[in-house]
Write a structure and sequence with these properties.
Strand content: 5-15%
Largest sheet: 6 strands, parallel
Shape: globular
Structural class: alpha/beta
Number of helices: 14
Radius of gyration: 19 Å
Distance between the termini: 40 Å
Bound molecules: 5'-deoxyadenosine
Length: 351
C-alpha cells in the first residue's frame, strides 16, 4: 500500500503525535515532491513565528586547543598538525567591541575544551562582557563542565549555552568518540544546563560515520525530552588528519530535510543555518533558511586565527560567514525574501 506522505507531513505540522513508522518514512522515504512540500511547510511555520527576519549572532572562536579526541573533529588533541591558538581576554573584548559597533546583540563564545581556559577564567570573561554590555545576550559553547561551573557561568551573566548531544545512541556515540567520553555524560550536562535556566542548544551532525535513520529517530525523541531552545544541525564533513578523514560527507539534502522536520516538531526553536552546510554547498545558507532555519552566526574572530579553527576541511569564514560582510549577508537574504533581524532573539514563549 502506498502511504500518502503529505498526510504525515500535515500531521507533524499540526503538532500531532507521530509513531515510529511515520517518523521512519519522513526520515528515509520522501519523494522529491514530498520534500519540497515539507520545506514549504517548515519555512511557513518559521515565518509565522519569526516573520522574514533572520537573527544574527556574532561568533567568536576562542580556542582551538581541546583536551578531547573526538574522531571526527579537526581540532582533536591527537591531531598534531592542527594549528593552535587561544584568544586572550583583551582580544575577546576587542571582538565584542567590534561586534557591538556592527550591531550584534548576541555574542557566542565557542571553543575546544581548552584546559587553560579554566572555569574561573570563563567566569571573569563573562563578567567583563556583561559589565560592558548589560543588555546583550551571552552564549557559551565551551563543552562539558561541572554543575558548579555551569552555575558560576550563569551567575556571571551568561544566558545561553550550546552543547550538541552529537548522537543519542550510546553505541553510535562510542563510534564517534573515545571511551573516555559518553553519551550519558553529555546528556547529563545538557539536563543540568536546562535546569539552571540556560537557553540550551543541542543538535547533531547529519551523515556522521555509522549514523542510521534509526539513530536520527532516537535523536529526535531525545530532543523532545530535552526541549532545547536552540537546535544546531549541520552535515558531517571529513577533517584531514583525523580517523574519519577518508569518510564521505553528509548530504546537504538530508541536512535540510532534518532542519525542516525539526522546525515542524519544535516550531519556536532557534535553528541556525550552520557554517558546515554553507561550507558543503555554495547556497547552503539559503537552502537552510528555505527549509525553516532562522538564525545565522557570522564569524567575528580575529581574521588571522579564523583559518586555524579548522574543525573540518574547507570551513568557510569569509563572505557572508564573516561579521565584516553584513552587507553581503543582507543582500543574499533579500534575494530570497528575508532580511537581517539585529534583535537579541531570545527564545520566546509568548508567540
Ligand atoms: N564535520 C561537521 N561538524 C563537525 N563538528 C565537529 N567536527 C565536525 C566535522 N568534521 C561539529 C560538532 C560540534 C560542533 C562545534 O561542530 O557537532 O559539536
Amino acid at each position: 500500500m502506498q502511504f500518502n506522505n503529505k498526510n504525515i507531513i500535515d500531521k507533524l505540522t499540526e503538532g500531532e503525535f507521530l509513531n515510529h513508522e511515520e517518523w521512519m518514512i519522513l526520515l528515509g522515504e520522501l519523494s522529491d515532491d514530498d520534500q519540497s512540500y515539507l520545506h514549504e511547510k517548515a519555512a511557513e511555520v518559521a515565518r509565522m513565528h519569526f516573520g522574514n527576519g533572520i537573527f544574527v549572532r556574532a561568533l567568536l572562536e576562542i580556542s582551538s586547543y581541546c583536551r578531547n579526541n573526538c574522531y571526527y573533529c579537526g581540532i582533536r588533541c591527537g591531531n598534531k598538525n592542527a594549528q593552535r591558538y587561544r584568544l586572550s581576554k583583551e582580544e575577546i573584548l576587542e571582538c565584542c567591541k567590534e561586534g557591538n559597533i556592527l550591531g550584534f546583540n548576541t555574542f557566542v563564545l565557542q571553543g575546544g575544551e581548552d584546559p587553560h581556559q579554566t572555569d574561573e577564567w570563563i567566569v571573569d570573561i563573562v563578567k567583563s562582557i556583561r559589565q560592558a554590555y548589560p543588555d546583550k545576550a551571552i552564549t557559551l559553547s565551551v563543552g562539558e563542565r561541572s554543575h558548579e561551573a555551569y552555575l558560576a557561568f550563569k551567575e556571571a551573566g551568561a544566558n545561553r549555552f550550546l552543547l550538541r548531544h552529537e548522537t543519542r545512541n550510546d553505541d553510535h556515540y562510542l563510534q564517534l568518540h573515545p571511551s573516555s567520553m559518553s553519551a550519558e555524560k553529555r546528556r547529563d550536562c545538557l539536563m543540568t544546563l536546562k535546569h539552571l535556566g540556560f537557553q540550551t542548544g543541542s543538535g547533531m551532525m547529519i551523515g556522521s560515520p555509522g549514523q542510521t535513520d534509526e539513530y536520527l529517530y532516537e535523536d529526535i525523541r531525545f530532543l523532545e525530552h530535552l526541549q532545547p531552545e536552540m537546535i544546531g544541525i549541520g552535515p558531517f564533513i571529513p577533517a584531514s588528519n583525523t580517523p574519519f578523514e577518508n569518510c564521505s560527507a553528509g548530504s546537504a539534502e538530508k541536512t535540510t530535510l532534518i532542519i525542516s522536520l525539526l522546525r515542524l516538531r519544535f516550531p519556536k526553536a532557534l535553528i541556525p543555518a550552520t557554517t558546515a552546510l554553507s561550507s558543503l554547498c555554495h547556497n547552503g545558507m539559503e537552502q537552510a533558511i528555505l527549509a525553516g532555519a532562522n538564525v545565522v552566526m557570522p564569524n567575528i574572530s580575529p581574521a588571522e586565527q579564523r583559518k586555524k579553527y579548522s574543525i573540518y576541511n574547507n570551513k568557510k569564514s569569509t563572505g557572508a560567514e564573516s561579521a565584516q560582510q553584513m552587507q553581503q549577508l543582507e543582500e543574499r537574504l533579500n534575494a530570497i525574501g528575508y532580511h537581517i533581524n539585529y534583535d537579541r532573539g531570545d527564545y520566546n514563549t509568548f508567540y
